[in-house]
Amino acid sequence: MVNRKELRPESSPQAAYGAHLRRLREERVWTQEDLAGPMGCSSQHISAVETGRKPPTLPFSRRADQVFGLVGSKESFEREWREMRHGVLLEGFPEFVGYEGRAVEIRLFEIGIVPGLLQTPEYARVLANSAVKRGSITPEQADERVAVLATRQAALDRPQSPMVFLVMDESCIRRPIGGHKVMDAQLERLVEFAESPNSLLQIAPYAIGERRTFDLPVTLLTLADRSVVCYAESQAQGHLDREMTSVVPMLTAYHQLQAASLSQAESVAMIQEARKGTP
To answer: pTM, whole model, 2 decimals?
Structure first.
């Protein structure tokens, strides 16, 4: 097909939506012009949605469900649109996970909660259930969140495991999550992680003050070709950066943070002290 753009559905929820639309259209041997008529829009609009240049809308999704006979089904475009707007996978996150599974070095910084890659199933479930209670995600999305996390953790258990550097703000071990049993098991998991030959754990204590170089969670991935990818996210948005001009300063800031943080031995001692004080 002339000028056919290769789609990357793993790169973002919007890209996955577009790939879904193209797949169903091509299964019926419809051109974009064929679909445009019953959809009540132009073929250019169909093309823009399929290639991710234009985000789908709720009316567009509902009309697509009618055209493809998907109203109320698991493949519903309306359902996909709602998950895209309110779901568990932030923009850029699916593509990031692909890089994470191939990284030879992983550098993590987290604030407030233990990083996902080191969360116990119980700790992760408490966080997911809490989001359900707040109404920010559905029970089904909570299950998806926990399942995605388990898949990411399993991907790191491979013959040549990556070196994992972890710097956690002190708040990660001070904030009680899920009660004594859940929190104690989570802190124990961190101590076990520190004993691994492929890991380095450091706590950034409150005392370093303004020397803490990040105010948001950050992950830096070093790939086999020694290129570095940076992923950072806020409450509602994730951003994946592969441009070295902006990634290198983040790597420098990470090294500065490590220099200001406690040693691994001091960090483990702080975690063990926190375990004793867990109510």
So the answer is: 0.69
